[in-house]
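Dear colleague,

As promised, here are the two records you asked about, laid out in our usual form so they can be pasted straight into your sheet.

NAME FIELD: protein one
SEQUENCE, THEN STRUCTURE:
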Amino acid sequence: MYSIDKYCFKEFKIVPGHRANYAILCKPEYKENQWGMKYSPANNYQREYKILPLFSHPQISARYAEGNAMMHKDGKSVIIQNYLIISHFEGEDVVEYYKKKGLPNQDEMENVIRYFTNATLPLHHMHSKGYIHCDIKPGHLILNPATGTMALIDLECTIKVGEIICGMSKEYASPEQKEMIHLLRSMSDREDEKSVLKKVRLNTASDIYSVGLIFYQVLTGKLWQETPVPPVEINKVIPEKLNKVILRLLEENPVNRIQSALELKSELETI
């Protein structure tokens, strides 16, 4: 048995490619699978802890506690960890789910559309509050096939619309996110962040692009950056209207992109 502070869990889990390890708490006073814990010796979760109460949606984590304490294994000290206690979502990375299940066939296509339609709900809630997630990737969209829901997790990089980016996952970032990072890294001594914001501004369309990359990968098993062809050329059972929706999500110019989660929801509901 492991513990950090007063919180107990059964297994020490390292998740490759993520900034945090994750465990499901198992103290008897909690409901089964009620709370999860992100923990890391290096990352601080104070920013995410402050951001989470801005949102109130069943597909976005609620916060419980955050802190810093020694991790123990069977009563023996291991390492000091920063931690964040949040509501737990049953399910798995949506891309990993379809890697195991295989490319969606004609019968499965309806489920895929339903899952991504559902994912627009927490995204719209966040956007309606004037915020963008900024780090949407497969591991941050958790699919529960039993309920048909997708949870939006890990709000460490969430910012207000129009603010300077504070992090991203390059593989699933929008062109404008990459441009902003490039401008920030190449600023001269006479420039500041305000000069960057005059050249590029992030809005909700940036999150929409990231959703498009994940949608494309689920439908084709390929990364758009490596195989930038219409998805129907890879998976012939994709409906033509869905093919067009995916291509609109992946427009390089954000002005030409599907602009909002509500617009995406509306498009998917007509397929």
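NAME FIELD: protein two
SEQUENCE, THEN STRUCTURE:
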Amino acid sequence: MRSIDTATLYGIIDLGYVLPEDLVVRTQQLIEGGVDLIQLRAKNQELDDIRTWAKLIQPLCQEAEIPFIVNDYPEIAKEVAADGVHIGQEDGTLLAVREIVGSQMIVGRSTHSVEQAEEALEEGFNYIGFGPLYPTPTKAGRAAIGLQDVSYVQDTVGTQIPVFCIGGIKLDNLAEVQAAGAESVVIVSGLLSADDPVASTQQAKAQLAAGPN
């Protein structure tokens, strides 16, 4: 299984952008394009549906040897033998999640400020998402935090756990995000809604590998 420590491109299968009948093909496209891990995000959906979708995606990620992360639901992550679970600021403590999933599963935390990033590191999360950097429909009602703290968080928290910058990142602003200090990113609609998801994923991965211009 590929380590999250060397991951640069985090893909999310978001039911806000993907129809249930397209889940498998979109997952395959992101994998073919070279994402380093995949999360299933299904806000406001029935738990039975999320469980079903997770069971479709998990074996695809396992075959590709990339981590599969379930958003929000540690119980489902454990049930489908996912590699990890991702929780938000309002979803409780790491300890509470560990009581469900055990000590080995990857657990990530969404953070929206330097203070939250540092707290997540201190609490013991395996990685953080940091953002939203730009306004994005996937984080409706949450103000964008901008780019000014990216370098600091990368140079502090990011030396100990992976920091995945997130929120409104697309191919046309990826260079700006890299110039601000980001080394690893999450891209959602920029990949899922692309005319050619495989090519767009490959382009993003190559640009991340090349580093800031």
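A couple of things worth noting about protein two: The chain has a mean pLDDT of 96. The two ends are 31 Å apart (CA to CA).

Best,
R.
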